[in-house]
Write a structure and sequence with these properties.
The chain has 302 residues and is an alpha+beta fold. Helix content is 24%, strand content 22%. It folds into two domains: 123 residues, DNA primase, PRIM domain (Alpha-Beta Complex); 170 residues, DNA primase, PRIM domain (Alpha-Beta Complex), CATH 3.90.920.10. The protein contains five helices and 16 strands. The strands form five sheets. The chain has a six-stranded mixed beta sheet, with helices on one face. The structure holds adenosine-5'-triphosphate and manganese (II) ion.
Length: 302
């Protein structure tokens, strides 16, 4: 191919115009070869689906301006210069200080971030106008090295069953990395203390019932051969990777919503990559995934 050295690609986004992607032919994923332009095209196509889960939530970015093999950093604050479609919201941090955070509400905003070297998007469990009212609970299942994905699938099913006992519907997501997130949409009406405590109690009850399989504390030493049920994603200020985000991992995998019915047939958390936009869009239109992540349910006991 006869590409110019510093190719610039203009991406047309549905709602509000264009974003220029410079160095579109720069390889972001060495080994498999996907470029910054490929990443931009992926996000352009997937934006409508992704925004259902990301729009107006405070967001953190994993930026790798030199590609995933270079130096990457996790960016929480708005330090300026991200682009015209990236918005700012002031949030009071633990220390009491107001800090500028980021949020997006358009495909153009996603692409502005890609232009600035973003690969991954992570979001808070609340929206920017209701920071003190979490509306999504996440159980992040992290297998110890060497555990089969099958163990993670079983763990996810067990978390689902425990939630169902409490009357809560939940939805599984492949993270694109090693694990599964079990996601519980919740109506607003409770605070972070109740949110975190409910998630902790559920994780602890599973680890107490089956201590040989599950652990609910972060300490690495206690995780040998087990699955860590990370409930800490449910604390104020914590983030989790957003459905349909690409991951800065080998092969350009993506985080993907799946159904409970299909989960037993999936062999890895990295089953889909940024090359699969067509398949992901088709899947989302299919019966099984309609309504994924949507349920009108309050936190029990509130
Ligand atoms: P995997 O399935 O491979 O575990 P994951 O997205 O769950 O994928 P984790 O390493 O378990 O990855 O991280 C859990 C969450 O912690 C991430 O989704 C992210 O939102 C948050 N996180 C990751 N790195 C940082 C960081 N440097 N600073 C703050 N939060 C982070
Ligand atoms: Mn995880």
């Amino acid at each position: 191919m006869n590409k110019r050295k510093e190719e610039t690609q203009t991406v047309q986004t549905g709602e509000n115009g264009r974003v220029s992607i410079t160095h579109a032919d720069r390889v972001v994923f060495p080994g498999t070869g996907q470029t910054k332009g490929d990443l931009a095209n992926y996000y352009m196509r997937i934006a409508p689906l992704m925004l259902e889960h990301l729009a107006r939530r405070p967001v953190s970015l994993v930026r790798c301006p030199q590609g995933r093999a270079g130096k990457c950093f996790f960016q929480k604050h708005d330090t300026g210069g991200l682009g015209a479609h990236v918005h700012q919201v002031s949030i009071r941090e633990k220390a009491g200080e107001l800090k500028p955070y980021l949020y997006l509400d358009s495909g153009a905003g996603l692409l502005d971030c890609v232009q600035m070297g973003t690969i991954e998007f992570h979001a808070w469990a609340c929206h920017e106008d209701t920071i003190e009212q979490p509306d999504r609970m996440i159980f992040d299942l992290d297998p110890d090295e060497g555990l089969d994905f099958e163990e993670v699938r079983h763990a996810a099913a067990d978390v689902r069953a425990r939630l169902a006992e409490k009357g809560l519907a939940s939805f599984p997501m492949l993270t694109g990395g090693k694990g599964i997130h079990v996601i519980v949409p919740l109506q607003r009406g409770h605070g972070w203390d109740e949110h975190g405590a409910f998630a902790r109690d559920l994780a602890e009850s599973l680890s107490q019932a089956e201590p040989e399989r599950f652990v609910a504390v972060m300490a690495k030493a206690k995780r040998k051969g087990k699955i860590f049920i990370d409930w800490l994603r449910n604390q104020r200020g914590a983030t989790a990777v957003v459905p349909y985000s690409a991951r800065a991992r080998p092969g350009a995998p993506v985080a993907v919503p799946v159904t409970w019915e299909e989960l037993p047939g999936l062999s890895a958390a990295s089953a889909f990559s940024i090359g699969d936009a067509d398949a992901l869009i088709e899947r989302a239109a299919d019966g099984g995934l309609q309504g994924w992540g949507i349920a009108e349910q309050p936190l029990p006991g509130v």
